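Re: magnesium ion structure - here you go.
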Amino acid sequence: MIKPDACIFDLDGVIVETSDAHFKAWQRLAESLGISFGEEFNEQLKGVSRRKSIEKILAIDDRELPEAEIQRLMDKKNGWYQDAIAELTPDDILEGVPEFLETLQEMEIPLGIGSSSKNAQYIMDYLQLNDTFEVIIDGTKVENTKPDPEVFLKGAKALSADPSNTIVFEDAASGVEAANNGQFISVGVGSEEYLGDADLVIPNFIGLTPEKLFKQLNDN
Ligand code: BG6
Ligand code: MG
């Protein structure tokens, strides 16, 4: 691979640190139901849809609730989460990410967002990143949540990119799996412990250039 057709970025946990706000809101909701979970379980909630997340939380305690109650709980969690993200500004873009994106743009590599979140557009607005990405595929545009590759396949299609020559950046195990399921080149952003199935794992974007990354992928 000399130059990828495109790069598709997950949003939460890759471009901006919203994972903790999701975690706290879900924990608050779970506690109100008498269910508790910690950070390790929370890894399973990363990357998956709101609906799948609440199903996983209720399953901790074999809890079954009527549909209307599930909807009410999801709305409650989303209200808390939206209050938290309303504080976001462009300063919250993770360190190293702006420079990395800027270099990709200079290299004329098309950029996309592939997120499970239905709040992705709000976050993109708060971070003022709409002009940086040609395509935003989010939770409002897909039927199937990660690890299904739908979100990334739609992104690649919109960018006229071949998945096998498109890099997907992901912080969630479900997202790395989705990228692998779609035959993308997967780059895990975070810990090897959870993202070991990725083609390459990087801790973050600090000091990383696209050239360095492409070389590391080539040498793999
Ligand atoms: C993903 C997050 O990006 O979006 C998950 O990693 C979250 O934690 C999912 O559950 C859905 O988000 P939202 O904002 O639609 O509830
Ligand atoms: Mg994520």
